[in-house]
Design goal:
three-stranded mixed β-sheet, Clc chloride channel, elongated, about 700 residues, homodimer
Chain lengths: ~700, ~700
């Protein structure tokens, strides 16, 4: 009965365990990052270890159970109170702050990169690309998703972020969430998990990673669908799993309450002014900016990755250190670069409220509306444009360095500063003050660059809303994202930076692209491997072992099984297909200890000869249960396009080629991809130079 | 050059035309419905034809371009002003109002059902089921998506809704949108459109239908994905098409501005109180209610559909009239049933503001918070529960009547009244006044019932947010929907009412369900048709015509093409597959006018014999371009599970069965489904009784 209960509930239990773990890690990450970041600027008076939120939260004295929302909206005010009351002390003096800032930044990034280098090299970078490849059916290295990588990524990520590098946490969040999904699913469902089920758990967990990184449960689910599962099968069952995991993970995070303000919406802006039709040209302009940003940043980043591989492979740690020092020097002296990226976006998105000069949101940006001083206008707009350009360049050289690093948040920050600069222009030269809502331009700019770098549409729109709650701007947001996408399509960019990295890293990835017209003329006959190694329906155990442990038997992963009566014929009829790992598993099992292998017959199919031997009383091993007796056969004239669809959509790894019942060849996924790459190179030249 | 431009832009142009058309129809529908509904209660003083919004909008005197949002929030106040100023006159007196109400209701529904009966019978009901079946690969009748159905559905839907029946507009909106997509795509892309591309346009248009019905662009896209495309392939290109169409359609609708308030958000509530952990049990309770609602309402509705087929088939018009009268009598005397469903939901969702006794939202519900009079408490709660029960029953008997009818909005209305009743209970007996936000319970109840009846998760959550903008309730909403789904899963309900209708209507629908374990033991050999009709590589034209126009040739849709040299052999080797419609298209083309068909040879494959005849100078027709020379072959032992996947995921219609190169049989999608249905019946008994 217990068994039955477990069988009925194990899916839900597994999903819950995955989700709660992801939520807890996200909470830890949030608090740890904030602590490290806060240390760079000050310390808590009563306890060095506390970060600002925890340190200041004593003054929140609201015994009323039903806190009204405006309690939370004023957190930034609380922060100023907190400083005034002496609970939190900022580093002060003319000289001290910057050295402390610099030293802490460098030590954080140093620890981070050393952890990555010596403990888990797989924890570097974003990880989205690898997971995408994994769920399409190519298992990447096992270490990529194991517990050590999970641990290192969870520690090294906060360190890397708080070192001030221009990197985000969402890519790595996807990676650690996928690690959790993989580890937990393999542990709880080890006996029943198939590869495609495993992919479902990975997709669901990856989505939850985005969900907790942004506090955006629906955005996370859609990310899993639009980005991770784009090239694999996405069905209703995956959707429901993603939904459930994202919900529980975000609920857990909310329960942990890492920001100490009860909110999971990161920015919570309330735009109370509606947009007008006259603003549409500006929206289009922002969309175009997003598209161009996406195109050039990913191009330059890939170029820089090639440079790094050529010149910097031997000095990953030194590269990170120099990058940190460089970033710290540039950032410290620009008000938008110095702040934490999310904090600076919070300020940029915020609508200037009348008479709100004292809260932290009452930034100089807002006062600009009133005093039309040309000097301060030029100063602030150049500061914004400087931040835009420098941040873009920092993204190019930071993404891919040897620390855990994402590219979403920095891209959004670039878009936000650019959009805010545009809003100042528009307000001064076109609309006049008080007509537009400047914060919305920053918001739309962030949506455009995020969409440009990822090439996602609906996911970006939903994430932006979940970040801010600014629902009345739904049409402008969708419009900006659509324009960005159209620009990318027009420029011929397929896929976001994660997709482009697939090619840069030379991963196998199954996607028949429509522009690969050169593949149309080829059919199975020209792609297949003809140099085949077979097994026969019945084999001598010694003969089988010899075959498996020598020559091609060592290299290949599976073998066609040939009709017994064709052993001596030149034409072979194939009756099944068997994977080497299954045979080895049988041969290595403890009860397989035979002193005299020559005398034992292995029967791979339940054929007449096998039953005859059985009748004669000889020793026989029945392996017919591990042979796939109905593999997929095609004919030689099947076109390559259909091959792509069969591999992708039937999820098979090997297809046998037959003509008139006679086995002619065999095609694996990798055969097909290798063929495609070779032809691609013949047509377009080497991949590296074509920036694919 | 013009040709090139058209080729590059035709996808975007087609999508834009589809979207703008959908937006315009939606705008017309909105205004027309409102006019009809308003006529039932009053008329405009200066022009009988105007509806309330248009009639009253003269008093909107805001020359300021940047309307602030609170202008719109007070529309309901404006309405009262409008009455006071005498612009709009309600029917008054003791007797007059009800007869006018009744007579108009009956005439609206009469016109609607007559239009459906005599002009376009396909315009009845919802249409979601048929579209779902269509996009999985079974083309339903052509009339289902043609221009006449589109026209009738667009006229009959507003009439049916304003007759007061418990029906919604989203299902029919999906249908008319799909009609637009089908008609426009077939017109603009007639020469290049394949079936699977057509499906993409249908999915995108269907999504836009929901988007304009609810003013929810993202919800629409997700609906297309989660409901319409659930069983077919959903790829990145469909997602982008859906996104674009939904955006443009909603932008068009917004530009038309049918509500005259500049909003597309239907309800726009602003909950400023956060939820507390203590409310979670109530959320769970609402989720369970949603699940049970979904289970029983669809069960009873299907039962009622069977009853209707048995007893009422001959009197569809009479049924609709009686239903209208019955509904009018019941609804007129309950304050929640009398109102338009969206209007009543607006009131139920709304948060009671302090001191807001004069606006239309200052309903008696709000005053109840202050005066704890037991009598009025009992009166209002029984009114709410009465509305819940009666509306549920009305849904059961209305959905499926012979008018265009959706089930989403009525279901939401049921959930809203129920949730609001619960909120009154909680406020009075558990929490005490001022702790909970009663409107949110109505909101969550609506989410639960909508999810229960459709079995959708993420779509429902997103639609609810787009309807209201109440983002801070994201976790409770997701929780309620998840509970509803878990309840449905636990009860063994697969799919929403649209899926269940597939079985009720006996549509072919390709889905291998996991519980159909009985299919596991069957393989291709037992499913295939062995009674085959062939064509040969070269045939005499007269012989071919005889074959096509007689006996089985008339019935079948496609034929295997057999190797010429096997003409007299018992074993036939198949070299291709040809569809009858392609041969007929060739034979019926004008240049095919031969006086002497006996002398002409038709060559179906470019074989040696064909070239030999060509050399001899005889007349030959080359048909080899219409023959699929690489159809999909399988062996007899391929299991049924793989067959399901091949049909579904490769999108093929026919699979040939071969053994050792010899053709043995043929399986079509319908063969497989027929086999499944028969076996299902053998195992579980007749489908009707098992309520599948």
């Amino acid at each position: 009965y217990r068994q039955l209960l477990w069988e009925r509930s194990r899916t839900v239990v597994t999903l819950t365990v995955i989700a709660v773990t992801i939520g807890c890690i996200a909470g830890f990450l949030q608090i740890f990052t904030e602590t490290l970041v806060n240390w760079k600027t000050g310390h808590c008076a009563r306890n060095w270890l506390l970060n600002k939120s925890f340190c200041c939260s004593v003054i929140e004295t609201s015994p009323n159970n039903s806190k009204r929302l405006y309690d939370f909206k004023l957190t930034k005010r609380d922060e100023l109170d907190c400083l005034d009351e002496g609970l939190w002390i900022n580093w002060s003096g003319y000289i001290t702050p910057f050295p402390i800032f610099l030293i802490l930044s460098v030590s954080f990034s140093l620890i981070s990169t050393l952890l990555v280098k010596y403990v888990a090299p797989m924890a570097t970078g974003s990880g989205i690309t690898e997971i995408k490849v994994w769920v399409t059916g190519f298992k990447y290295k096992d270490e990529f998703l194991n517990a050590i990588t999970l641990f290192v990524k969870s520690i090294a990520l906060p360190l890397a972020i708080s070192s001030g590098l221009s990197i985000g946490k969402e890519g790595p969040s996807v990676h650690y969430a996928a690690c959790v999904g993989y580890t937990v699913a393999n542990w709880l469902l080890r006996d029943v998990l198939t590869f495609s089920q495993q992919s479902e758990y990975l997709i669901a967990a990856s989505g939850a990673g985005v969900a907790v990184a942004f506090g955006a449960p629906i955005g996370g689910v859609l990310f899993g669908l639009e980005e991770i599962a784009a090239s694999s099968e996405f069905n209703a069952s995956t959707l429901w799993k993603s939904y459930y995991v994202a919900l529980v993970a975000v609920a857990t995070l909310k329960w942990i309450n890492p920001f100490r303000n009860g909110m999971i919406v990161l920015f919570n802006v309330t735009y109370d002014k509606y947009w007008t039709k006259g603003e549409i040209p500006v929206f289009i302009f922002l969309g175009i900016f997003g598209g161009l940003y996406g195109k050039y940043i990913s191009k330059w980043n890939i170029y820089y990755v090639h440079l790094r591989r050529k010149y910097l492979t031997k000095w990953p740690v030194q590269e990170v250190i120099i990058l940190t020092i460089f970033t710290a020097f540039i950032s410290y002296f620009n008000e938008f670069l110095k702040l934490d990226m999310t904090e600076s976006m919070g300020i940029l998105f915020h609508e200037c409220a009348k008479g709100d000069d004292i809260s932290a949101f009452g930034h100089r940006l807002c006062q600009l509306d009133k005093t039309s001083n040309v000097g301060s206008f030029i100063q602030i707009i150049s500061s914004l444009l400087f931040a835009t350009i420098v941040r873009s360049l920092l993204v190019v050289i930071s993404y891919g360095a040897s620390v855990p690093a994402g590219i979403f948040v920095p891209s959004m920050a670039v878009g936000a500063t650019f959009g805010r600069a545009i809003s100042l222009f528009v307000e001064r030269f076109i609309s006049g003050p008080g007509v537009i809502t400047p914060g919305t331009y920053a918001f739309l700019g962030a949506a455009a660059t995020l969409s440009g770098i990822t090439n996602l549409t609906i996911t970006v729109v939903v994430i932006m809303f979940e970040l801010t709650g600014a629902f009345i701007y739904i049409i402008p947001t969708m419009m900006v994202v659509a324009i960005t996408r159209l620009v990318l399509n027009h420029e011929g960019i397929k896929g976001g930076i994660a997709d482009q990295m697939v090619f840069v890293n030379g991963f196998p990835y199954l996607e028949y692209e429509k522009e690969d017209l050169f593949m149309k003329e080829f059919s199975a006959g020209s792609i297949m491997t003809t140099n085949l190694k077979f097994l026969y329906e019945t084999m001598n155990l010694a003969e089988l072992k010899d075959f498996l442990y020598s020559g091609d038997g060592l290299k290949l992963k599976g073998f066609p099984v040939i009709n017994e009566s064709d052993r001596l014929e030149p034409t072979k009829r194939c009756v099944g297909y068997v994977l080497k790992k299954h045979i080895l598993a049988r041969l290595l099992s403890p009860e397989m200890d035979f002193s005299n292998p020559e005398m034992i017959t292995v029967s791979l199919m339940s054929s007449s000869k096998a039953s005859q031997i059985m009748l004669e009383g000889d020793d026989i091993l029945d392996f017919s249960d591990i042979v796939n007796s109905s593999p997929i056969f095609i004919k030689k004239n099947v076109p390559a396009t259909l091959l792509f669809r069969m591999f992708k959509q039937l999820g098979c790894k090997t297809i046998l080629v037959e003509e008139s019942g006679v086995l002619e060849g065999l095609i694996t996924r990798k055969d097909l991809l290798r063929f495609q790459r070779i032809k691609h190179r013949e047509v377009f030249g080497p991949i590296n130079q074509s920036n694919k």
